[in-house]
Amino acid sequence: MSATVLLAVVFVLSLTLVTWLLNQLPQRMIVGFDATHRHSPLDGIRGILALSVFTHHFFKNYFFQMTGHWQSPTIDFFTNLGSVPVSLFFLITGYLFFGKLKQPRMDWQYLYRSRLQRIVPLYLFLGICIVAIYFTQQHPPLPLSEWQQWTLRWLSFNNQSLKDFYAWPLVAGAAWTLLYEWGFYFSLPLLFVLAHPKQLSQWQNIAMLMISLPVLYYVFTHTIIKLYGLFLLAFFTVWLEDFFKNVLAKFPTLISIALCLLTLFTLFETSAYSYGQMLLCGLLFCFIANGFTYFGVLYQQGLKVLGELSYSLYLTHGLVMYVWFNLLHLHDFSQSMTAYVWTYPLVLVFVVMFAVIGYNYIEKPLMHRPNSRVLSP
Fold first, then answer.
1. What is the spatial distance between Cα 363 and Cα 32, in angstroms, rounded to a whole number?
2. What pTM does this model have?
């Protein structure tokens, strides 16, 4: 068995085992996870997506350690373990907020405050970790102007390495998607007035348009425009909700088998962020958001817990890998890739443990709790 096939098998088995172990947790330990109180396939799918991205970056990390370059794998399956989850994360965000755009009024202050409190604290913590590790590596001191430039780039989600310190692997490259998320958030005032033209007379909506348009210009000039199509594809999930629910209700087994095969095709036979892959992800998501559960798998309690941890898992797994392999040197890379693959389960345990810490002590205390006005993805 090749090392790449072994990693795919270890990933599936580890995901199954982690889910099973989390399923065994007593109720008193999981009551604090909001996702376990909801009945939505989206909570379960987010757990799978976050661990898929970790696996994608775990694979890339091996070649980074060997070559010094953080680059995409040449194997479509492992590349798509990154691109397909990111695509679905974008679709989830679009779906949650398109649902809100149907309302005739928006509380913009609440929306953006909740986004800041949901996303920024853990991201700032990651930035502090980068600075701390920079100083532990005995790099030459930087002038104040360099620190100011890096801080400005980091706060604008256009994160860059610190001078000669190649920090991209420390975040596993995952933070790039946050700039797209904010691009979508600042497109909401424009989308809102397009959906509700009469609301353009309200001063709050005019003010938000004036604020958001310059931000959109900045974001669009620093990102790939076609990827915003993933957010927009979620519109069909909301608009055709009854259609997809009816199809699932009429042909549950047939549609479920077809969607499982379509998932495998998307992972193995499409190119990352191609228009074909984006459309297939959009189609899959239309069914998932409207009740498709992969034969009940997405309702597993363990996956819901992982789904609640998904942001911490997504943002901090690179930090755990960097500490493990670059600071503590807990693996000898002169060995074969197969030996590296066998470290996956143990590294995964620490990734999940660190995500629990990040969720409980950084995310949750500072997160604006969701209420009836805005859903928190």
1. 13
2. 0.93
**Lookup result for tokens 């969701």:** 370
Q: What is the DSSP string of 130-143?
A: HHHHHHHTTPPPPP
DSSP per-residue letters across 189-253: HHHHHHH-GGGGGSHHHHHHHHHHHHHHHHHHTTS-GGGHHHHHHHHHHHHTHHHHHHHHHHSHH
84-111 pLDDT, tens per residue? 999 999 999 999 999 888 888 899 999 9
276-314: per-residue pLDDT in tens? Answer: 999 999 999 999 999 999 999 999 999 999 999 999 999
Cα(267)–Cα(249) distance, rounded to whole angstroms? 26
d(CA 226, CA 81): 20
Burial (CB count within 10 angstroms: exposed 0-12, middle 13-18, buried 19+), residue 96: middle
User: What is the pLDDT, as a whole number, of residue 369?
Assistant: 53
Mark the ranges of the chain whose per-residue pLDDT is less than 70: 1, 31, 160, 368-377
Of 224, 269, 264, the residue nearest 75 (C-alpha): 269
Q: Cβ contacts of residue 216 below 8 Å, gap of 6+?
A: 183, 186, 187, 190
Beta bridge partners of 165: 162
| Percent of the residues in the chain that have a pLDDT greater than 90, as a whole number | 72
In angstroms, the Cα distances linking 152 to 56, 127, 146, 159, 319 are: 29, 12, 10, 9, 21
Token reading at 24: 């065994």
- Spatial separation of the C-alpha atoms in residues 193 and 200, rounded to whole Å: 6
97 CA to centre of own chain: 16
Q: What is the pLDDT of residue 169?
A: 85
The stretches of the chain forming alpha helices (DSSP H) are 3-23, 27-30, 41-67, 76-101, 108-136, 144-155, 176-185, 188-195, 203-220, 228-239, 241-250, 252-269, 275-289, 301-308, 310-322, 337-341, 344-358, 364-366
> What is the predicted pLDDT for the residue at 373?
45
Cα separation, 172 vs 82, whole angstroms:
11
Asked whether the beta carbons of 87 and 230 are under 8 A apart, the reply is yes
3-state secondary structure of 4: helix
